[in-house]
Design brief:
With 156 residues, this protein is of the alpha+beta class. Helix content is 23%, strand content 31%. A hairpin with a 4-residue loop joins strand 4 (74-79) and strand 5. It is globular and about 40 Å long.
């Protein structure tokens, strides 16, 4: 029975052993984690071209680099395929790794043809250049191929 399997204790090799040191792992800087978790739909990973095809109000995740646009909380995201999106409602006090042009994934909803209303931002960990933007873009395009789409569609 499945329930009986779920009630089993974890195997001994998964339990923490005495004398094992905890590893220090650098995680991504995340802004708006609670807001992203509260989104009604799982955001679809897109590049600029796929963003243009998405409906207004669609939940999306766009990878790229943020730069200030000079108008307070609004910023410009240069996407992995070379497009530019106006990113609104970004908190002015971004962590240095995000504000400094690090590779980020902006999560939010499409507000218009070139506008993204931000729900959260995830900065990729590590020192630059950690993310290959071309490889990221190719992965996004592959996930949209009809033959592979079901492998990348979230099960909710």
């Amino acid at each position: 029975c499945v329930l009986r399997f779920l009630r089993r204790p974890a195997p001994h090799f998964l339990s923490r052993r005495p004398g094992m040191a905890a590893m220090d792992v650098e995680g991504p800087a995340v802004i708006g984690m609670e807001q992203m978790a509260a989104m009604p739909h799982v955001a679809r990973r897109v590049n600029f071209k796929l963003f243009q095809q998405a409906e207004v109000g669609a939940a999306v995740r766009v990878g790229g680099r943020l730069s200030a646009s000079g108008s307070g909380k609004d910023r410009v995201l240069t996407t992995t395929d070379g497009g530019s999106l106006e990113v609104s409602e970004v908190d002015g006090s971004l962590p240095p790794e995000v504000a400094g042009g690090a590779f980020v994934e902006v999560v939010g909803t499409k507000a218009g043809d070139g506008a993204l209303r931000t729900t959260g931002i995830v900065a990729m960990p590590g020192k630059e250049p950690m993310v290959d933007a071309e490889l990221w873009d190719e992965a996004v395009k592959l996930a949209e191929l009809p033959q592979l789409r079901e492998l990348f569609t979230p099960l909710v």
